């Protein structure tokens, strides 16, 4: 592996980066090291950069439709990466997974309907439910042996209460947990039993860390596939979030019709030219880069877990099975969430995501992004230690 690719420090300040240019504004302090928002400090794959540069050489940037080749690239990628056979007719596009969540909530539910999620979970799950005037029903996750687990008795009870839609996060964010085929089968069986559609956010699915392997829930069983809309994107995988391109995949024609109706109502007519260009190049030529990235992330995770167990034994590090986000249990420090934040910002000069953003079960936790060159990671770990010294 050419680790130099991921060791290079790239100056991101003054590029409009939310992570590097707006952290001070968001956290109320200057000179913070940003290890919060989920984008990486690595260059996107060279084939993606080249495809964008080549396209820019053509001086006309008019209205754009997805080229036929992009469907082929997506289908090939899903088969090779996830052993999932999909048809081009199942593929829809969205500017992002959060936008797709909103569209799905509007398509499958009405104001006042119950939508189930599993906290602690990615903040927009809550936001998209409440901002669309639906009711959040929470099947809260538990921690067993330092991994998230699902209370399936509560899961079924909540479904019985009249839930109209279930939002699944797999791999789970913030914990990095990949739900097993057995767990996904239990989810699918119960949702099928009660006729509840599944919106499965699998945006971190490409970033599975062997020996763990991501399984799309729609790939397991035809019954689950007919109930599911899978949300994926190249954004987290290939660090192209600023190009705003994502996928909705469903084989159910009625679901497609409902989703398209809402997209049309909101005047969404397709992705921008550069989002399409990057997506096709990433899925067609990005695998070698991704494999090297995964090796680097695994090393970063080893360094992080070793450092914390040695230097900060009061903090328990949940080892991710996918992605570059580490969920840190700080409850043994005996600090309030406000004090946690204060120590990190004022003593350590470190910006992490507070666990309270992820809903019930996030209290006393913080999320740390280790998708960065080793030099930044080591600086961040020293700042974490200083925060609580």
Automatic annotation (TrEMBL):
Claim: Lyase is one of the keywords in the record: yes
GO MF, one annotated term: pyridoxal phosphate binding
Similarity field: Belongs to the class-II pyridoxal-phosphate-dependent aminotransferase family. MalY/PatB cystathionine beta-lyase subfamily.
Keywords: Aminotransferase, Lyase, Pyridoxal phosphate, Transferase
InterPro entries documented for this protein: Aminotransferase_I/II_large, C-S_lyase_PatB-like, Class-II_PLP-Dep_Aminotrans, PyrdxlP-dep_Trfase, PyrdxlP-dep_Trfase_major, PyrdxlP-dep_Trfase_small
Class of this enzyme: lyase
Name recorded for this polypeptide: cysteine-S-conjugate beta-lyase
Aminotransferase class I/classII large domain: residues covered: 39-378
């Amino acid at each position: 592996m050419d680790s130099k690719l991921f060791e290079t420090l790239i100056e991101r300040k003054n590029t409009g980066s939310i992570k590097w240019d707006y952290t001070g504004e968001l956290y109320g302090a200057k000179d913070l090291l940003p290890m919060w928002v989920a984008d990486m400090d690595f260059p996107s794959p060279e084939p993606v950069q080249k495809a964008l540069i080549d396209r820019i050489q053509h001086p006309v940037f008019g209205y754009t439709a997805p080229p036929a080749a992009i469907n082929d690239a997506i289908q090939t990628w899903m088969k090779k990466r996830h052993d999932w056979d999909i048809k081009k007719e199942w593929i829809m596009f969205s500017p992002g997974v959060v936008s797709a969540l909103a569209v799905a909530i509007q398509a499958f539910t009405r104001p006042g309907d119950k939508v189930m999620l599993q906290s602690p979970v990615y903040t927009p799950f809550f936001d998209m439910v409440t901002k669309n005037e639906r009711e959040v029903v929470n099947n809260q996750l538990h921690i067993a042996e330092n991994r998230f687990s699902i209370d399936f008795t509560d899961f079924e009870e909540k479904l019985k209460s009249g839930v109209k839609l279930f939002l699944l996060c797999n791999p789970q964010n913030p914990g990095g947990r990949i739900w097993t085929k057995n767990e996904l089968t239990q989810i699918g069986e119960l949702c099928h039993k009660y006729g509840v559609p599944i919106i499965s956010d699998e945006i971190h699915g490409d970033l599975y860390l062997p020996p763990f392997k991501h399984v799309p829930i729609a790939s397991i069983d035809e019954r689950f596939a007919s109930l599911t809309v899978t949300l994926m994107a190249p954004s987290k995988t290939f660090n192209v979030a600023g190009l705003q391109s994502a996928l909705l995949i469903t084989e159910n024609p009625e679901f497609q019709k409902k989703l398209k109706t809402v997209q049309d109502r909101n005047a969404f007519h397709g992705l921008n030219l550069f989002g399409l260009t990057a997506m096709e190049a990433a899925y067609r030529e990005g695998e070698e880069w991704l494999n090297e990235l995964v090796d680097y992330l695994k090393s970063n995770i080893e360094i992080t877990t070793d450092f914390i167990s040695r230097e900060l034994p009061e903090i328990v590090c949940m080892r991710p099975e996918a992605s570059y986000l580490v969920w840190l249990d700080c409850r043994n420090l005996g600090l309030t969430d406000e004090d946690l934040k204060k120590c990190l910002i004022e003593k350590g000069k470190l910006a992490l995501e507070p666990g309270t953003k992820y809903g019930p079960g996030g209290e006393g936790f913080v999320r740390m992004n280790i998708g960065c060159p080793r030099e930044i990671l080591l600086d961040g770990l020293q700042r974490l230690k200083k925060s609580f010294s």
